[in-house]
Amino acid sequence: MVYRAPIMYPCNDLSFARIGYVSDTSASLLIREPDSTQLPIFVSYRSVPSASNRAVDPAWKAVGKAYWLSNETDYTFTVVLNGLEPKNRYQYAVSNNHTGSFTTAPEAGHTEPGTDKLTFLTSSCIKPRYPYNPLSHPLSIGGFKHLARWIPTLKASFLIFLGDFIYIDVPRRLGSDLETYRREYRHVYSSPDWPSVSQTLSWIHVMDDHEIANDWDRNTTAPYPAAADPWHLYHTSVNPPPVHPDASYFQFTHGPASFFLMDTRRYRTPSQPLPANSPEKSMLGSEQLSSLLAFLSRPDPDGVKWKFVISSIPFTRNWRFGSTDTWAGYLHERQVILEAMWSVSPGTGVVVLSGDRHEFAATAFPPPEGSRWPVSATVHEFSTSPLSMFYLPFRTYQEREGEGEVCV
User: Fold this and answer.
1) Do 407 and 361 form a contact (C-beta atoms < 8 A)?
2) What is the distance between the alpha carbons of residues 82 and 24, in angstroms, rounded to a whole number?
3) pLDDT digits (tens, 9 = 90+) for 10-64
4) Taking Cα atoms as reference points, which of 253, 271, 378 lies closest to residue 324?
5) Three-state DSSP class for 234?
6) Beta strands in 216-329 (DSSP E)
7) Measured between alpha carbons, how far apart are the two ends of the chain, in Å?
């Protein structure tokens, strides 16, 4: 059962297309095609009439092509559709028989047509065929089936995936080479359940430990280079723009909200042996921390009322199992960030979204009593996972008096 998928399903013939980050004027498209008889690959798109916008030009427009693909990029390439109209529905088509649709974001400070809300999804943690069932397809993903049933109802603008898209070391590691990591990504994208959650939904990604190794805290040492290769090919290539060139943390604005997607693995110092409150420990590294603090202090455009900080691991220390791998192991730097969050301009809410723990929790971080910050500056965290992995049958989340972190 452990070897059935990697031996019988290397997925070298995977052919697919998916939408990544969609702004108000552009959309990023990832395509994979290993069959040379399908080359060259042509990409086109068109506007789709909707209830809010019927006066559109339905003619197809050519936008990109690829004459040659190779193993250097695992037969993937990206296309960016530019010059789009905000809040408009589009359909794309690829000459290798893939198609899908998406809606561009509203302008900064505005909302979707016909609503004053922004709806988006978050989750983390995927392992094909978990729990194991000999009658299931080796690449089936039960969580995708549940998600697919909700997509038409929720009408979410995008999904932020909070890490552990693959589990390179579960149930056991089969290698640390480039091909082993690439194959794990192909397994997910080859799942018979993948098309149902991707044809109309934009996916945006951050990385966590199981894309590299459990509780990873060794920066870019091996096997990080092999792990990062498919992570960049399949995910960051169609993510929002990085904050700095070659950085693996991102930020963007979508309608009434701005987002900062942290990288909590690549830049961190080891979780041991220094204590959690040591100023010498860092989860983010100096450059990323400075970028996050700048994001929090920078005024947003009119109408942008929320700042979302995306963390692959929990921000609260109320998780009492394996907490040194979370922000509970980096309390000095976390305090710096919390104070910056409490100092955000009045009228703007700050929310942390996290995954990793295979449990749900909602936590409030009120400012200390008698401090210079009002109670209205309270930060909230919502932690959700897994999408399709084991869940913990017992709670490891516990609020403790005097720590100032309140279970909501």
Assistant:
1) yes
2) 10
3) 999 999 999 999 999 999 999 999 999 999 999 999 999 876 666 678 899 999 9
4) 271
5) helix
6) 250-254, 257-261, 306-311
7) 41
Summarised one tens digit per residue, pLDDT across range 142-170 is: 999 999 999 999 999 999 999 999 999 99
Apex CA 83: angle with CA 199 and CA 38, to 5°? 50
Compute the distance between CA of residue 363 and CA of residue 284 in angstroms, rounded to an integer: 22
152, exposed or middle or buried, with CB in 10 Å at 0-12, 13-18, 19+? Answer: exposed
43 forms bridges with which residues in the sheet? 64, 94
4: confidence class by pLDDT, cuts 50, 70, 90: confident
pLDDT at position 53: 66
The span from the CA of 17 to the CA of 362, in Å, is: 35
Asked whether the whole model's pTM tops 0.85, one would answer yes
Report the distance separating Cα 22 and Cα 81, nearest Å. Answer: 9
Phi, psi of 401 (to 5 degrees): -60, 140
Which H/E stretch holds residue 77?
strand 76-81
Amino acid at 188: V
